[in-house]
Amino acid sequence: MLAALPFLKLAMISLERQRVFRRLVVFHVLFIALLAGAHATLSWLPLANLSHALLIAAIIEGAILIGWRLAQLPKSQALEFLLVSPLQPRWVLLGEAFAGLGRLALVTLAGVPPLLLLVFAGVLEMPDLGVLTVVPFLWGAIGGIGLTAWAYEARIVRRWGERVMIVLVLVYLIVGVLAAERLSNWLTVLPGEAGEVVYRMVLFCSRYNPFGLLEYWLAPARDAALAWDRVALVAVGSTGLLVVLTARAAARLRGHFQDRHYRPMTNQRRSDVASIGDRPLAWWAVRRVMEYSGRLNIWLAGGFGVVYAAFILLGDAWPPWMGKMVFHIFEGLGGVPAVTTGLVVLAAVPAAFQYGLWDPSAQDRSRRLELLLLTDLDGDDYWGAALRAAWKRGRGYFVVAGILWTAFGFAGRASWLQLVLAGLAALNLWAFCFAVGFRAFSRGLHANGLGTLLTLGLPLLTGGLLALGLPMLAPLIPPGAVYSSLTRAPSLLWLPGPLLTLATTVWLAKSSRRRCVDELRAWVGSAR
After folding, report:
1. Where are the alpha helices (DSSP H) in 42-193?
2. CA-CA distances (angstroms) from residue 10 to 17, 98, 279?
3. What is the pLDDT of residues 346-366, one digit of tens each?
4. Buried b (16+ CB within 10 A) or exposed e, 463-483
5. Domain extents in the chain
6. Which of 144, 210, 291, 428 has its CA 20 to 30 A from that of 196?
C-alpha cells in the first residue's frame, strides 16, 4: 500500500488532472442538483430514474478518472523505466488505480449535499443516501477498471471476447426484448425443469444487478429485509468483481506494454502498411480509433434498433406471444425522437473528443507534432484525417437512427418532411461537434472537458428545457433541434437554431483549416 502513495501524490499535484477533477466535481454537483430539481418540479418522475441517472453518471466518471488514465498509460515508452525498476509492475498499476479510485470517491462524495436536500425534503431517507452513494461508486470503479482490463488483454483474447459478448447481446435481445414479460410462456417449450431453471436464472440476473437493485430499493412497496439482503449481495459481488478485474489488469500491464512496443513485424502488418496510400495521416488516425472500435455497442444499438423499428411498423399487428413492455417503456421516455437523438449524440462523441489526433499526454502530443510539422502537411490534411477517423468511428449509430426514422415514417407517425429535417439537424449536430473539437485540437485545448460539454451538457440542457415546459427554446440547441423536428409540426420558428449552428460550424471550419498549422506550431512552441 505504501508503494501507491507516490502515485497518489502525483495525481493530486498534477495540474491537468486537477483541472479534470474540478470539472467533474462541478458537473457531478450540477447534475445531481438538476435531477433533484426535476424530481421536485415533476411529481411524476420516478425516483428509480434518478437512481439510474446517478449510476450511469458514476460509470462515465469512473471511465474518465480511472479507465482513460490507465488505458493510456502503456502508450508512453517512459513507463519502461518503471517496469525495469525494483517496483513491481503490479504496484505501478495498483498505485495508479488507487489514485483514480480516490479521485472518484471525492467526486462521488461531492454529490452528497444535493442528495441531502432530498432527505430534508422527505423524498429520501438516510439509508437511501448511503445506498445511492456506495452502489454508484462501486460500479463507477468497475467501469474504469473493467475498461482497463479489457484494453490490456491480448488481441486474440479481445477478439474472442468480443464474439462471446456479441452472442450475449443476441441472447439479451431475445430474452429481454422479444420475450420480455412473455418469457415464462416461451420457456414452457423446454423439456422437464429446464424452463424453470432458465427462468430463475433470468429473474436472478434482473433483480441482482445495480439497476434492478436501486429500482427495488426505492420502490414504495419494498420489503426492507429483502432490500438489505439484495444490497449486501450486490455490494459483495461488486467488490469481488472489482478485485478480480484489478488483479487481471495488474497482471497484464507488462505484457500489454510489450505487445504495444515490441510486437514483431508480421505479414499482416506489412499488408496494412501497403494500404496507407497517399494520405498517411488519415490512415494512421483511422487505424488508431479502430484499435478499440466499440463494435459491441453498435451490435447492441443496431439489434435493438431493428427490433424497435419492427415494433413501430407492425403496431397493433405485433404478435401477442412477443413482449411489448420494453417498447412501451421507451415510448414513455420519448420514443423514436428521444432514442434517435441519443444515437446521433453517440455518433458525435468521436467527433467532439477527436480520438484520431489526440495523444494521451501533452508531452506525447508535442513530440508527435514536432515531427508532423516538419512535413508538407497543411490544415486540410489534419482536417481530413480527423474527419475520416471520427466518421469511421461514429457512422454506425447514424445507420441505426436512419432505420428508426424510416420505420417512423412508414408507420405514419411523422411526415417525410419532418424526417428530412431530422436528418439535416443530425448532420448539423455532428458537424458542429466536429468543428468545435477540431478547433480545440488546433489550439491545444484538451478535449475532455469540451467533449463532455458537447455530448452530455447540451443533451442535459435540452432535457431541462423540455422538463420546464419550454419546448419552443429546444431547437436553439443542436440536440434539441433533432428531437423537436420529430415532435412538433414543421415551422419557421424551428429554423433559427439550426441556421445559427450551421453558421457557427462553417465559420469554425474555415478558420480552423486556415490557421491550423500556425496554431499548432504556436502550441508546440509554448509547450516546450
Report:
1. 47-62, 68-72, 79-83, 89-110, 112-120, 126-152, 155-172, 183-187
2. 9, 12, 39
3. 999 888 888 767 666 667 777
4. bebbeeeeeeebbbbbbbbbb
5. 1-262, 287-528
6. 210
